[in-house]
């Protein structure tokens, strides 16, 4: 347990290079787009239900949620950079 | 059962609450910069105005009719916000820097501060949003009618009013409300804190309402599993196969464009943004909001389809379901939620559009045609009135669209028509902030073309149910031209109408934008603005793109500022600047930097184009805008070129003068030579003439002279005459030779034969003198280039010279001829006195006679000159040569003929 919390603290404390953060954001955006478009979207399109919800619905909302969480994490990491705001794309 | 009166009263009360919120919110925001109202939370909630009654009612209906398609409306904006770093951040930064007030302002400012483009975009936006506003009116009308029920008891004061009347009343109420809300003052950065506060509150209300309905439905339905399994039993399934088609792509793309370009979205996301860090929070918070909103839409739809009768309108499930279970309180809450979502959209959209109309249509008209209000408050009140008028206009258009299309049932398709219109701005926006070469002409043409396609393929067909003409047009095409059918253009039959319209309009738009920009050129201002926009993150705080250098006094500028911004703000600006520079406000000298800043502040109120025009009018004298700077640079260039021309010309003149000087000197010399010649000739002629005259005179007196004397005198006269004639002949000959008259062509002649002939001619002379002729060596017959007679003449001259000037006891003439290396040489050597060193050059000149050994038979002194001329004409030389004999040696060299 102490190791895990230490790792978490480390994760938040260390400064990730701004360029890596920007790259991650791009990856997240593009990946998110691809996951909600054919053909990838058909991957989880079987007539199965998870918790009673059709799989495709579950899949779309899951992807959506993951994108939100990913963005939140990246935005927070970016907030730790004092000069992140001046980077060029 | 709720009565209509009660519902309407609730609605009005709610609106009143909003108004109070807006009023206090405004005051709070102005007084304290650090208040809650400037937080990222409020920012994010205000962005949520994206979810209108389309979400509250229309999405449920869409889910019920078409399955999962409704999700794309929220997935698109999610992508834009997840990628906020790349697009939204850039937009926010540029708009901050340039005080952009709307999407029309953004494009107009980027493309050379063009007002024409701004007008085009404003008009398209106003027309394109009309369906969207109609959607809200329709939703509210339907919701009131639904919740009031069909019973006589419920109708209340609505009895006898059909939906058109109701919609009209709602529209009028909205207009009034919006005017009261949003046109109380003109803010410097066009930020409406009070409105934003009210919108944020509404966002909470509608989320809470929808979540409440959703949770209720899930609870009543027995959980998700139950709802979906019962749905499958009844035959309601989610057709995933047919979902991810062209419509999926289209609606996803349109929603991406809409979240950026919709006037209200641009207003809240970009213009109202007061801190870039808020965007970071919104990047995940707004998608989270949308996720929550859409979480229960599908369950509500599915449950409604299974539970409620087939004839009920799916759009109204959020109301009808609670009502079906006698949950009036929840139904009222849902109604307020839906009403809230509609009002927030109408208020914000109308305000945003009215800003565009007042800045880009009204202001330029004022600037062109009038002085625009006399006193300091004139401009502000004019602007506000213009905005109020625009709001009324916009809501009227929305109402009319509603009126003409009220037969159509579903809400969502109406909204998508608006999305397609607004999407026409998106390519230009992307090009504006990423592509430096995008030009004004291309952007204008692209947007105009896209709009035309939209009108034809999307807007017009929406009137199909009202107008039989339109229905006919859709079936057969204009004048029967099949491939121009609005929903099947150019042979694309069978495509979904939305995808079809979006495809043609956006393809034409993008194509014209790209190709047009590559083919057209940009003006100087365009290029400057392009660099300002595209390089927004590379530039420092220094270069902000305005080069207005003014000789305007602070008074002139203050006058303008006061008229537009109001006295308080203008005074604050000037005082701040004066404090910065450490001078008194009335001693302020406006620097170019300050004038640039002032222009940006004005742009915040009246748009970039109008601010630019206004300041340029005021700043006179050494008013140097960028265009004028370019012009001055051009003129300077011209002056430099002209002076270079002048220098070149004067250099030419100088060289010509030098040449003239040289020619003059030459002429003077020739002149003096001529004078010398004339004096020498007259001297030569005079000498024999004197003899002839004197002897003639003596002969005229016969007495006193005897016969032998007379004989002597006559012969002397004869000789002198001969001499004179010879002299004149020689003069003529030499003159002719020098001038190139009497030319001859050099042919091959025999040199030795000429020499022999010359010796024969001079034989008598030689014998008389007793001169011996020796040959030191004779070449064989050689052909030289020359003239036979003239060569002979030269030899005769040289031989007779040798005779004349030889005073030795035993005169000798040694002749030697030889051929060597293509040159034929003849040497005439004698044993006379020779030529003194000093005379070697002179002897070949005219009238120079040898002094020593001259006999009475001396000629005029022209012989050698003539000989030399002749020989040089034959491309040979006549010189003195070293000699074995004590006398002179003349050498004639001629080229051997090939």
Question: Which secondary structure elements does this structure contain, and how are they paired or packed?
Answer:
The complex is a heterodimer of chains A (89) and B (898).
Chain A (H helix, E strand, L loop, with lengths): L1 H12 L4 H18 L13 E2 L2 E2 H25 L10
Antiparallel strand pairs in A: 1-2
Chain B lengths: L3 H28 L8 H8 L5 H14 L5 H11 L5 H11 L4 H8 L4 H34 L3 H4 L7 H20 L10 H29 L2 H11 L11 H16 L1 H9 L4 H20 L1 H11 L9 H8 L3 H42 L8 H27 L7 H11 L3 H9 L5 H20 L8 H9 L7 E2 L2 E2 L7 H23 L4 H11 L19 H12 L1 H15 L10 H15 L1 H11 L7 H75 L6 H33 L7 E4 H11 L1 H7 L2 E6 L5 E4 L1 H17 L7 E9 L2 E8 L32 H11 L3 E4 L8 E7 L3
Helix pairs in contact in B: 1-7, 1-10, 1-17, 2-10, 2-14, 3-7, 3-15, 3-17, 4-12, 4-14, 6-7, 6-20, 7-9, 7-17, 7-18, 7-19, 7-21, 9-17, 9-18, 10-14, 10-15, 10-16, 10-17, 11-15, 12-13, 12-19, 12-23, 13-17, 15-16, 16-17, 17-18, 17-28, 19-23, 21-23, 25-26, 25-27, 27-28, 29-30, 30-34, 31-33, ...
Uncertain runs of chain A with pLDDT below 50, 5 residues or more? none
- Overall average residue pLDDT of chain A: 77
Number of extended strands of chain B: 9
Unreliable segments of 5+ consecutive residues of chain B: 372-376, 541-551
- What distance separates the N and C termini of chain B? 137 Å
Strand line-up across the major sheet of chain A:
1-2
Largest protein interface? Answer: A-B, 38 and 40 residues
Whole-angstrom Rg of chain B: 57 Å
Name the features:
heterodimer; A: mainly alpha; two-stranded antiparallel sheet; 2 strands; 62% helix; B: 898 residues; mainly alpha; five-stranded mixed beta sheet; 5% strand
């Amino acid at each position: 347990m102490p190791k895990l919390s230490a790792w978490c603290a480390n994760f938040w404390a260390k400064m990730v290079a701004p360029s890596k953060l920007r790259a991650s954001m791009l990856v997240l955006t593009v990946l998110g787009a691809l996951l909600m478009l054919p053909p990838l979207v058909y991957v989880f399109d079987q007539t199965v239900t998870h918790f009673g919800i059709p799989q495709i619905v579950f899949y779309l909302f899951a992807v959506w949620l993951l994108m939100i969480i990913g963005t939140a994490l990246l935005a927070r990491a970016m907030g730790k950079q004092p000069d992140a705001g001046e980077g060029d794309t | 059962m709720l009565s209509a009166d009660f519902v309407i009263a609730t609605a009005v009360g709610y609106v009143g609450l909003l108004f109070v919120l807006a009023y206090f919110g405004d005051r709070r925001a102005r007084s304290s910069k650090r208040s809650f109202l400037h937080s990222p939370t409020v920012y994010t909630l205000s962005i949520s105005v994206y979810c209108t009654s389309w979400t509250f009612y229309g999405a449920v209906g869409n889910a019920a009719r078409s399955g999962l398609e409704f999700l794309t409306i929220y997935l698109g904006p999610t992508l834009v916000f997840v990628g906020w770093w790349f697009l939204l951040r850039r937009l926010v930064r540029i708009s901050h820097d340039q005080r952009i007030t709307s999407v029309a302002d953004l494009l107009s400012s980027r493309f050379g501060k063009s007002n024409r483009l701004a007008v085009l975009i404003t008009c398209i936006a106003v027309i394109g949003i009309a369906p969207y506003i109609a959607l809200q009116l329709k939703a509210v009308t339907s919701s009131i009618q639904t919740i009031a029920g069909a019973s006589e008891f419920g109708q209340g004061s609505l009895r006898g009013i059909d939906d058109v009347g109701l919609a009209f009343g709602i529209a009028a109420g909205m207009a009034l409300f919006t005017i009261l809300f949003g046109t109380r003052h003109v803010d410097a950065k066009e930020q409406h804190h009070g409105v934003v506060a009210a919108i944020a509150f509404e966002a909470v209300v509608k989320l809470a309402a929808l979540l409440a309905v959703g949770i209720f439905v899930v609870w009543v339905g027995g959980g998700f599993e139950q709802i979906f399994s019962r749905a499958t039993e009844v035959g309601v399934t989610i057709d995933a196969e047919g979902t991810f088609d062209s419509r999926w792509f289209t609606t996803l793309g349109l929603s991406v464009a809409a979240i950026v370009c919709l006037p209200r979205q641009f207003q809240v996301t970009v213009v109202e943004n007061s801190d870039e860090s808020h965007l970071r929070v919104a990047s995940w918070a707004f998608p989270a909001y949308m996720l929550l909103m859409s979480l229960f839409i599908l369950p509500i739809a599915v449950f409604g389809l299974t539970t409620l009768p087939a004839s009920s309108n799916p759009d109204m499930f959020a109301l009808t379901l609670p009502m079906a279970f006698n949950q009036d309180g929840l139904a009222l809450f849902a109604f307020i939620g839906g009403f809230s979502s509609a009002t927030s959209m109408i208020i914000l959209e109308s305000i945003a559009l009215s800003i565009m109309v007042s800045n880009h249509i009204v202001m330029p008209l004022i600037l062109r045609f009038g002085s625009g209000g006399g006193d300091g408050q004139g401009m502000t009140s004019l602007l506000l009135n213009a905005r109020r008028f625009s709001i009324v206009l916009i809501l009227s258009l929305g109402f009319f669209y509603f009126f003409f299309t009220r037969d159509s049932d579903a809400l969502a398709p109406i909204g998508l028509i608006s999305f397609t219109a607004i999407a026409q701005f998106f390519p230009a926006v992307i090009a504006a902030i990423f592509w430096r070469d995008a030009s004004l002409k291309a952007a204008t043409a692209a947007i105009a073309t896209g709009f035309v396609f939209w009108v034809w393929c999307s807007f017009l067909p929406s009137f199909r149910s009202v107008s039989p003409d339109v229905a006919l047009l859709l079936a057969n095409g204009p004048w029967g031209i099949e491939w121009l059918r609005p929903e099947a253009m150019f042979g694309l039959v069978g495509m979904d109408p939305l995808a079809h319209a979006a495809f043609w309009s956006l393809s034409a738009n993008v194509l014209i934008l790209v190709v047009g920009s590559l083919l057209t050129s940009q003006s100087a201002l365009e290029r400057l603005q392009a660099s300002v926009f595209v390089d927004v993150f590379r530039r420092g705080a220094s270069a902000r793109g305005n080069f207005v250098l003014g000789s305007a006094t602070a008074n002139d500028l203050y006058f303008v500022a006061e008229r537009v911004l109001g006295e308080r703000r203008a005074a604050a600006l000037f005082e701040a600047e004066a404090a910065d520079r450490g001078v008194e406000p009335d001693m302020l000298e406006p620097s170019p930097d300050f004038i640039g800043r002032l222009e940006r502040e004005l742009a915040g109120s009246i748009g970039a184009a109008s601010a630019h025009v206004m300041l340029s009018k005021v700043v006179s004298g050494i008013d140097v805008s960028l265009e004028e700077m370019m012009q001055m640079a051009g003129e300077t260039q011209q002056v430099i070129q002209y002076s270079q021309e002048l220098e070149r010309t004067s250099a030419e003149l100088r060289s010509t003068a030098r040449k003239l000087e040289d020619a003059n000197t030459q002429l003077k010399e020739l002149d003096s030579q001529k004078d010398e010649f004339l004096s020498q000739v007259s001297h030569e002629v005079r000498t024999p003439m004197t003899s002839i005259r004197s002897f003639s005179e003596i002969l005229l007196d016969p007495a006193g002279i005897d016969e032998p004397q007379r004989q002597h005198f006559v012969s002397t006269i004869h000789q002198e005459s001969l001499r004179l004639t010879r002299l004149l002949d020689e003069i003529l000959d030499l003159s002719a030779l020098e001038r190139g008259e009497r030319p001859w062509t050099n042919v091959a002649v025999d040199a030795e034969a000429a020499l022999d002939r010359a010796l024969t001619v001079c034989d008598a002379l030689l014998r008389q003198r007793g001169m011996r002729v020796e040959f030191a060596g004779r070449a064989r017959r050689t052909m030289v280039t020359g003239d036979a007679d003239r060569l002979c003449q030269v030899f005769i001259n040289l031989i007779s010279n040798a005779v004349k000037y030889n005073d030795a006891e035993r005169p000798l003439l040694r002749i030697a001829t030889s051929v060597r290396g293509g040159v034929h040489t003849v040497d005439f050597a004698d044993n006379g006195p020779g030529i003194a060193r000093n005379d070697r050059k002179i002897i070949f000149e005219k009238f120079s006679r040898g002094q020593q050994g001259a006999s009475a038979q001396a000629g005029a002194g022209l012989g050698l000159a003539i000989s030399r001329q002749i020989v040089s004409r034959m491309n040979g030389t006549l010189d003195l040569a070293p000699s074995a004999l004590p006398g002179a040696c003349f050498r004639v060299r001629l080229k051997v003929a090939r």
